[in-house]
Amino acid sequence: MQPLFIVLEGIDKAGKTTQAELLKRYLINQGNSAVISSEPTEGVIGKLIRKAMQNQVFVMKDKAKFDEQMAYLFAADRHYHLYNEVDGIYNLIQQDNSHVIATRYYFSSLAYNTNNQEEFDFVYGLNKRFPNPDLVIYLDISLDIALHRLANVPYKEVYETQEKLQQVKDNYQKIFQSYQGKILKIDAKDSIEQIHQRITTYLEKNFS
Question: What is the pTM of this model?
């Protein structure tokens, strides 16, 4: 299997991190090199984003301006994520011959940082030059399940509210209705093992 850039997307608590870890383990067990490289990154901009999302630094009180600022920051961090010469995605694939698994990519910016068509067009413009991954895995989970899981989290980020997550879920549906790249949509209410099996079966069928 040639090294792949695989992205997992979905609203908060859809199970992206769990499935990324299982997928990494599966690929390694198959004799491949595989790494998880997610967004925000551990770079300078990525760390600033994490602080802003957790209300640890002052950004913007106005929600629309906050989303716009986050879109700029995520785009800059994404450029670093792809192209930095230490652990950038292209370096990992081309130099290290590794599969790269990311939880979140530009689809998340379109889903989380837009509230109307004008904002969607703006964020799309910031990200349109970024390449599509080899595969998007969209974990589609109900809002009720996501909110139930979030209830057990000791702290919440700024986007983890019922109103925002419903809007994000609607945005994801819009994004993936017109997306032209390879995508695997999975009902994330299924068991962890069932979801993982669907992912590995798809990979074996389409990329082996």
Answer: 0.93
